[in-house]
């Protein structure tokens, strides 16, 4: 289930975002409770899918509503492209929850915006993310030599979805 992040998600948010394995390939870094709470408050109150900004949605357990991850959506300034990024608590991985969340987010973005194409990218060493993207039918469109956290790396860029029609 996708939903707005909430200030009451703080403990769950900090638990998975503080896990070095969950954050290994992410652009974010763990943060203090005060900064995390401010972020959660901002996401709870903010509008969804504003061009030029990131929206972070909560991925929650369908039965309990407990936060188990988050999915970021960046809408380009012209509103035609979106980029997705996602994080999921280790205990929630391997059960199809990330796939379900990405599919739901694709539908939501196409329903609520004029976005034409949705992309995702990952470090070539992130085998789990590559498997997920390929399972979702994403097409690799570029391989780029770049730098991540001060180290050279190869980034794989994917076309995740295009608007039907």
UniProtKB/TrEMBL annotation:
EC category: transferase
Protein name, per record: GNAT family N-acetyltransferase
Keyword Acyltransferase: yes
Domain N-acetyltransferase residues, every copy: 1-161
Keyword Transferase: yes
InterPro entries, A to Z: Acyl_CoA_acyltransferase, GNAT_dom, N-acetyltransferase
GO-annotated molecular function: acyltransferase activity
EC number: 2.3.-.-
Signal sequence segment: none
Keywords: Acyltransferase, Transferase
UniProt-listed Gene3D superfamilies: 3.40.630.30
């Amino acid at each position: 289930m996708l939903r707005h992040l909430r200030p009451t998600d703080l403990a769950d948010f900090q638990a998975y975002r503080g896990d070095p394995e969950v954050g290994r390939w992410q652009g974010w870094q763990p943060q203090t409770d005060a900064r995390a709470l401010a972020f959660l408050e901002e996401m709870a109150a903010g509008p969804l899918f504003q061009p030029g900004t990131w929206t972070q949605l909560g991925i929650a357990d369908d039965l309990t509503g407990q936060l188990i991850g988050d999915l970021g959506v960046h809408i380009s300034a012209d509103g035609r492209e979106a980029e997705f990024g996602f994080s999921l608590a280790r205990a929630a991985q391997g059960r199809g929850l990330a796939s379900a969340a990405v599919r739901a987010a694709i539908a939501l973005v196409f329903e609520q915006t004029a976005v034409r194409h949705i992309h995702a990218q990952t470090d070539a060493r992130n085998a789990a993310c590559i498997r997920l993207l390929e399972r979702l039918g994403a097409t690799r469109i570029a391989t780029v030599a770049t730098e991540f956290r001060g180290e050279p790396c190869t980034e794989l860029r994917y076309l995740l979805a295009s608007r039907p029609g």
